[in-house]
Each structure stands twice: as C-alpha cells, then as structure tokens.
Specification:
The protein has 247 residues and is an alpha+beta fold. Helices cover 53% and strands 13% of the residues. It has a four-stranded mixed sheet with strand order 4-7-5-6. Strands 1-2-3 form a three-stranded antiparallel sheet. It is globular and about 60 Å long.
Length: 247
C-alpha cells in the first residue's frame, strides 16, 4: 500500500509512484478486480463486447453496487477523495479504487459543468508485473479496510486456480489466503457453475453446502438429496434462508 506520494510498497519492494490528477475519461475499470469481476460475471454477452462497450457495462453495473451508492454522497460532501486511487499507467487501469472511479463518473454525469468531477486524484505507477498487481489487490482488499465481499474473494480464488491455471501455493504467497480457504472458495464457485447459477444473492447457500460438514457429508452420500437442495436454491420462491441451513 502507499507509503507516501512518491512510492508504493509491494512485496517488500518500493515501487516508484507519482501523485497526479487524471481525467476520468483516460482511466479504465479493471475487469480482473474481484469486485468488478463479480459484477460482470452474470453478463453472458460480456466477452463479445468491444473494449469500449465493456467499460460502459462495467460502469452501469458498478452503479448498482452498495459500495458505490454509499460513496457518491460522501465524495460529493467532501468535494473530492480523501485518498487517491491507484493507477497502472501502462494499461491505464485502476488497480485500487474502481468504486471511487464509478462514483466520480456518476457525479460528472449528474453535473457535467462541474470541473472538479472531470479529474480524479491518482497515485500513478508506470507499470507493474502481474505478481505485483495481484499482491497490491490483496493488500488493498483482502486484508485492508475496503474488503471485498465473500463472493468476490471466492471468485478471485476460482479465477486464479481454475481459469488462469495458476498454483494455489502462489496465490497463498501473494495474497495471504490459506490453502484450505482457497480450496473451499474454489469448491463453492465450482458448485455454482455446476448448478448453472451465477446469481450473487445465492452465493451464501452454496457456501453453506461446502462449509457445513454435516450438509456436505449428507449430499455426498445422496445424489437425490444433492439434486433436491440444488434445485431448491435456484427456486425464487424457496422458503428457507442460508442462515437456517447453518443451524
């Protein structure tokens, strides 16, 4: 995380950085940021969109996030940011601060004549390795003050292990997440995919199925019970909550 306005500490290394104001139109949301990735995962047509269309869709979806809705009045009241966003300039992507970028764009859309919403305070690094970027994301969100949701964290683990085909031990090293937690997270998302369910609000049900030893054992022993529970979770008229499943 930032040490000062001239550097960022990542993995024990000091990476040069500069404090700048950048036009919000120059900056791009980071699709690999778990909060963003969680927001776009439900969009079946997303891979077919142009880069520009993807950015628009991400922005529209980010506006639905509670974190962004809460930020908009706070930033408007404070007339700006208390902390700069972190930008990787070789890609012009926001590594940390995607919610703040979305809030700024919304404020600019609401008041196009107000100059202060046209530019945003940034801590800019010229480039990062993929490993440095992963570690920076982990420092900022997995153990920081703006934590990702359990769903976003699980997607982060799943994407790393299953989609990027990278070692879980490497993820543990750069993120600090235990191997056991990585394995559980991957299992939860795999179960959702097997059940063709991308609904964020259903995540907690699948999380219980994997983490509850009693339930996990029961559905492992009975395919019929497993199918019944998975079908019930997707039913919009279900009569039980994830909390009730934990009891």
């Amino acid at each position: 995380m930032p040490n000062d306005d001239n550097s960022i500490a990542i993995m024990g290394e000091t990476v040069p950085a500069s404090r700048e104001r950048k036009s919000i139109d120059e900056l791009h949301f980071l699709p690999d940021n778990p909060r963003v990735y969680a927001a776009i995962r439900e969009m079946s047509d997303f891979p077919d969109l142009t880069p520009e269309e993807k950015q628009v869709r991400i922005y529209e979806r980010m506006l639905e996030e509670p974190s962004v809705k809460n930020l908009i009045p706070e930033i408007k009241r404070d007339k700006g940011l208390q902390e700069p966003i972190i930008v990787r300039w070789d890609t012009q992507q926001v590594i940390e601060g995607n919610s703040r970028l979305a809030a700024y764009r919304k404020l600019r859309d609401e008041d196009p004549e107000e100059e202060k919403w046209a530019e945003i305070s940034c801590l800019v690094v010229s480039k990062l390795t993929d490993e440095q970027q992963t570690r920076l994301l982990g420092q900022a969100h997995l153990h920081g003050k703006t934590e990702w949701s359990p769903y976003a964290k699980a997607l982060y683990c799943f994407r790393w292990v299953e989609e990027l085909n990278r070692e879980d031990s490497e993820l543990r090293r750069v993120s600090g997440i235990s191997l056991a937690e990585i394995a559980k997270s991957v299992q939860v998302i795999q179960l959702m995919k097997e059940n063709s369910d991308d609904t964020l609000s259903n995540f907690s049900y699948y999380d219980v199925l994997v983490r509850s030893k009693k339930i996990a054992s029961a559905i492992q022993d009975s395919d019929q019970l497993r199918d019944t529970i998975l079908s019930a979770i997707k039913d919009k008229d279900r009569k039980f909550t994830a909390q009730e499943m934990r009891q």
